[in-house]
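Thread title: Can someone regenerate the structure for this chain?

I was given the following input by a collaborator and told the matching structure tokens would be attached. They weren't. Posting the sequence so someone can regenerate them.
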Amino acid sequence: TVGVAGVISGMTVGTSYTVTATNGGCTSVASASFSNAAQLPTPAVPTITSVAASCSAAGSSTISNYSASNTYTFTPAGPTVGVAGVISGMTVGTSYTVTATNGGCTSVASASFSNAAQLPTPAVPTITSVAASCSAAGSSTISNYSASNTYTFTPAGPTVGATGLISGMILGTSYTVTSGNGFCTSLASIPFDNQDMGTPTITNISYSSNICSVSSTDIVLSSDIIGTTYSWSATVSNITGSYVTNGTEADINQIAILNNPETIGTITMTIIPYANGCDGTPRTIEITVNPNP
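Best answer:
Regenerated them for you:
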């Protein structure tokens, strides 16, 4: 049928028609054949599938209903689409839309999408260690410490203070530590440990505190560290000059003779242990030398 302004309606798509005009008495020759084609297909709106950023990679986006026969146009321009619909060339943090075109028609724009930057991974903890000394065991510090990070030790036990100083380490035990920021965890640090300098302690002094004149002192020393050496000095009272008043023996065995055989004498000895380059705590003993009956 023909409506106002000659618009024809009711045609079947793809069917060929002719038309004549009649004025009540006469009819025109038929028109040339004509037909209407079907509406051109419009591509589907691109569907975006995005993968969130991780500790190992930035976020990514894919056109999940990708068709190799379509072309894709991004706003703003820049990205491209590869095989399987993977989008490349996006600027991290920039919001995009995309349309699909099949050569004749263009789809509605997709929903906005963007890729987030790769999540930041903390720096590997850098350990600064101070060697043990004669006055203190060794210590270790995380020199690139950040108060906003958490630190995990293997094996567990140590903790980190405000300046990165590590406490709670077992001397001689090897540790590693990682840093976490709530999202990502660093690689482990190099192994580190704290050592004790091993300041020696005299664990036993075998001696008799009372001896008779012309008897041996027979003092035997022992320490908690193998290889400990000793230095000792003695102050004597009423003991003959033949008694040596200093030395380095671990078995101090010499004869004590009274100057005045009728009066007691004394030997006061201070002994200092030495090992690993350090002096230990001195020990003092006193021996009374009695007159013989």
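DSSP finds no helices and 23 strands in the chain.
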